[in-house]
């Protein structure tokens, strides 16, 4: 079941992203990743959302590749919560209609931590001024 | 001890929760060993006061050198348990003394300069620390800068009285993470200062300790949200979405498809 274009995708939501059919193995999706949405719904245009993968390979944790503990992840699809690493350098524009299903969500603290990693990657040394962000 | 994102407070060895942490957020996040590096501070102090500060720095140095004396992971974990409460006392004594002797502006200038030079120093220390630890330290120093910037905003916003209790709870959660991270960064600064090695066996433990800075930062963000709550807004239908956007998004998705790897969640 894919996500409808009218569905509002919120920041911190976790989705499985549907690869091309040729990549599937039986009922499973071989390269399937959980993606955490980092963009704000206020700025979503068309079917575009900005997200990055949460890898189970926590050995990749390093500086701006932020570890997210299982306690900060709520799975809603029956899969267990495990420690993951946010691959902030794999940030992408994704088509929300290619999201296969909602996996769950991460805490607001996890979102802040992930965005800290993204800001480091983009060289944003200072904390954004909220009045500028809102304008 | 499991660290990284959101370490539970009671997992910190040494019972830092027993200490009466200072209520000011903005002084936290300045590694204690940085105070040594500033000539701005020295110029602002009379000789007797300078001697007092030097003595306190010397106490802190000795604590850190004790932490660096370990030669194995197990030894490091044991030594850290032992020196952690001493570190808290030493760094607070130094911080409190400097707060009494030097103006906030001078301290701020001094810490800003020291942080800038520390970033440069760490980039030159890959041989001593290895790439992963040096990278984590550089990220931590950068995060400290973000925390200081966020602290300015928090102080400027003020706090509604009805949120005082939540704010106090956040502060008591924040302090151990901030100090734990500073402790590990101070160990690295001491290793540079006294030309001590950082054995590979416990570099990952130091790395994990540094990651507590992320925990401290996200707790600060929550304190900020108490003062400036974010209103969730719905997508704006006025945004233009055209063929160019459609093509770019399709291109991004093709990129995702092309990079399907064997390390996905369902990889065998």
Give an overview in words.
- The complex is a heterodimer of chains A (135) and B (268).
- Chain A is 15% helix and 31% strand.
- Chain A starts with 12 loop residues before the first strand and ends with a helix.
- The longest helix of chain A is centred in the last third of the chain and has 15 residues, at 108-122.
- Chain A has 135 residues and is of the alpha+beta class.
- In chain A, the strands form 2 sheets. In chain A, strands 1, 4, 5, 6, 7, 8, 9 and 10 form an 8-stranded antiparallel beta sheet that branches. In chain A, strands 2-3 form a two-stranded antiparallel sheet.
- In chain B, α4 packs antiparallel against α6 (131-157) and α7 (164-193) packs antiparallel against α8 (203-210).
- Helices cover 66% and strands 0% of the residues of chain B.
- Chain B is globular.
- Chain B has 10 helices and no strands.
- Chains A and B meet through β3, β6, β9 and α1 of A and α6, α9 and α10 of B.
Please bin the fraction of helical residues of chain B: 55-70%
Distance separating the two termini of chain B: 30 Å
Termini separation of chain A comes to 37 Å
Q: Which segments of chain A are poorly predicted (pLDDT under 50) over 5 or more consecutive residues?
A: 23-28
Number of strands of chain A: 10
Number of helices of chain A: 2
Helix proportion range of chain A:
10-25%
**Major sheet summary line of chain A:** 8 strands, antiparallel
Q: Could you state the order of secondary-structure elements of chain A as H and E?
A: EEEEEEEEEEHH
Q: Give, in order, the helices and strands of chain B.
A: HHHHHHHHHH
Main beta-sheet annotation of chain B:
none
Overall average residue pLDDT of chain B: 81
Q: What's the short version?
A:
With 135 residues, chain A is of the alpha+beta class.
How would you describe this structure in keywords?
heterodimer; A: 135 residues; alpha+beta; two-stranded antiparallel ribbon; 15% helix; B: 268 residues; mainly alpha; 10 helices
